[in-house]
Structure formats: structure tokens, C-alpha cells
Amino acid sequence: MTEAAGTPATQKNIGLTYGLIGGLVSAVSVLVFYLGGVSLFLNWALNWIPIVIVIVLAVLAGVQQRKVNGGYLPFGQALKTTFTVFVVAVGIQTIFTYVLLNVIDTEFRDAMQLAAIEKTEEVLRNFKMPEDKIDEAMKQAANSDSYSIKSMTLGFAFNSLLCFIVALIISAIIKRNKAPFDNAFTQ
């Protein structure tokens, strides 16, 4: 079945295709960080690499959608395409991370939880927080599970909200509307 250029089905295919690529990149990144150990997995600087790649993929998807539309891309369609890339990529990464840490290697999850608690304590001490507040924060951190289904679902929702904001910015930049009188004299 062929679709006319710029139809919603084409739009979804572009966003979905680039989102799947982004999800694959994100999942491979999670796997590489996992294989590198706890310190690599928790390294915030390196975790920006797949995020930047997914942002680039969202831009490329929007530009591709504009090409499919003959050089024009309304803001709403740009937003749908770019946000689809983000949601699919973040969804794949979230599911992969959940399975990795809750099914495949729960010991790694526990080691990460411990390392995160130790790092939190170190940061709080560097900020010269009172000892009773540090103890309270440590108790709270020890009782939380950042990788439970609930926490990861909330993380997915929060990340999707952040991605929506980025998609709004990208869409505002890449949109291109037809001139209002483009076909006025040719008919």
C-alpha cells in the first residue's frame, strides 16, 4: 500500500524509524555502560552521549519529514515527528534498562544502588550538610528503589516531558510553512 507524501502514515513511519534507531543506540549505550561496570554506568558525562545522538536523530527525522512534504513542514507535524522519535527511543531504553537490571542482573542493580548512596553521602558532606540531615537522606535513599517498575515508569514520564520541551524547540526551528498565496496565481 502506497501513501501520499506527507500523510500521517508517512509521518509516523519517519518518526518511528528514527525512534527505533535512537532506541537501539540507547540500548547499546546502556549495554556498553553496563559492561564497563558500575562507575561507567553511573557516569553522568558519558550518559549524555546517547541523549545527544537521539536529539540529532529527532532533528534528522524532522528534516526528512520536511523533504517528504516537498520542503514544507507545519509546526504540528514537525512536533509529532520529533516527539515520536523521543518517545520511542526513551521507551526502548527504559524497557531495556528495566529488563537488564531487574531480570538479567539484579546484583548489578544492587551495586549501583549502593554506589549511588555512597556518592550522595559524599556530595552532602561536601556541602557541609548537618549530620542528622545526612543520616535522614541516607535512610531515605536506602529505602528507595530507583529501578522498580514504578520508579522507571515515573522516570519515563518525566523524560518524556523533557523530551516534549526539546521537541517543541526543534520543531520551532525546522518548521517551514507554505506561503499563504503560493498557488493564488496558478489556478
UniProtKB/TrEMBL annotation:
Listed name of the protein: DUF4199 domain-containing protein
Highest taxon listed in the record's lineage: Bacteria
Pfam families for this protein: DUF4199 (PF13858)
Keyword field contains Ribonucleoprotein: no
The keyword Zinc-finger is assigned to this record: no
Keywords per UniProt: Membrane, Transmembrane, Transmembrane helix
Source organism of the structure: Candidatus Pseudobacter hemicellulosilyticus
Residue intervals passing through the bilayer: 16-35, 41-63, 83-104, 154-174
